[in-house]
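ugh ok fine here u go
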Amino acid sequence: MNIGEAARASGVTAKMIRYYESVGLLAAKGRTSAGYRLYGPQEVHSLRFIRQARRLGFLVDDIRRLLALWQNRSRASAEVKAIALEHVADLDRRIAELTEMRETLAHLATHCHGDDRPECPIIEQLAASGQQISDSFKAI
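structure:
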């Protein structure tokens, strides 16, 4: 099948298929005499695997490691679990950071009058040089 057919079958866009090939997640395919890439069921299966891993937020390097483990039938599941737990810890850190950002922005928005006055703690904090917003908003 050509790249468009592989894209439809896998749920991955043709642009992303090219990207996955360029970063080595998917082996570059041979081309027909007309220059079209050809894909088979194994490539579509790999693309679906990559799509699922991306939906879970895995980075390219982690997906590369997971693909290698998936293709290695003698793998130890402990290796897969370790990658997953590293990702869970990273997600927990990112959630904590996002929660702090949200709380800071909500606090600033609460203290902004939102009227015709030019004074606005949101702008003041964004313009504050050398201070972390999360540290400096406490004074408001």
